[in-house]
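Box 3.1 — From sequence to structure: Phospholipid/glycerol acyltransferase domain-containing protein
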Amino acid sequence: MPSQSNKQPALKKITRGLTVGSVITGSTFFHGPPVLALGLTKLFKKSSKVDETNIKITNSWLAVNNWLIDKVLPNTQWDITVDEQLDLNMQGRYLMTCNHQSWVDTTVNQYFGLTRMPLTRFFTKWELIFIPFVGQAFKILGFPMMKRHSKEQIAKNPELKYRDMDEARKSCEQLLSQPFTLLNYLEGTRFTPEKQAKQQSPYQHLLKPKAGGLALALSILGDKIDALVDMTIVYPDGAPGYGEFWLGEVPRIAVNLRKIEVPAWVLEGNYDEDAAFREKFQIWVDGLWAEKDQLIGKMKAQYAALEQ
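Predicted structure (token representation):
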């Protein structure tokens, strides 16, 4: 018969899982319907008050998640460093880049940003609109939703390229009616050693950055934002799964935020039409990514030294 000491960790894990699952499910059913109901009213009349109310409801849902992190996952150690030059506030307009390792990354972003920055949004595919509740919530909350066309489709009908740009421009311009944080995972996918090897990434801790999305956002919003923010997330004990995080199996999470100065030339070029500008922009982004790679290495080395 298993000893009581062997039973305890498993029982504790089950209890924590049931608690987290029940609270998040209950909170979602409590906060979700009002967002969707208010969103339907926008079909008849646009209202900034409705938008503000929906953001408050969403932030309340996030606050429940953060409460769970603080109270149910108290053993997770957070190490958050913010650049002194970065003056964040809830009324700001920010573009944010971040490395991507796990679904937990978005939760980390929300945990940090809830009381420091406006609601974080990110580009999503238009097809997500057909996912019940989730897709509609993205649309209602102002997540830029884009109808992307393949290279083959654009080759057959070049006008589709400009239609995509118009969709992106409209989506971004809609954000300007309120404070916002627009997040871009430049790697385009989650980091794994296999992906790193396959693309022969020159970075030790990162995949190659895709500059197109950032170039698009800067061309539309660049002269209207308060800062370009780079968030670096490090899991000293290895990138966790989403379930691992909520079961309290992530001992440490390190977050670094720094302000990226945007050169004037970045806002003056045409990424899609000017090959020389496109190359220069990619070199600039590659340089930012090299700095980020060094930062991740430094952060990991600091934690490794603590274990010796």
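Summary of the box: Residues 4-41 form the longest helix (38 residues).
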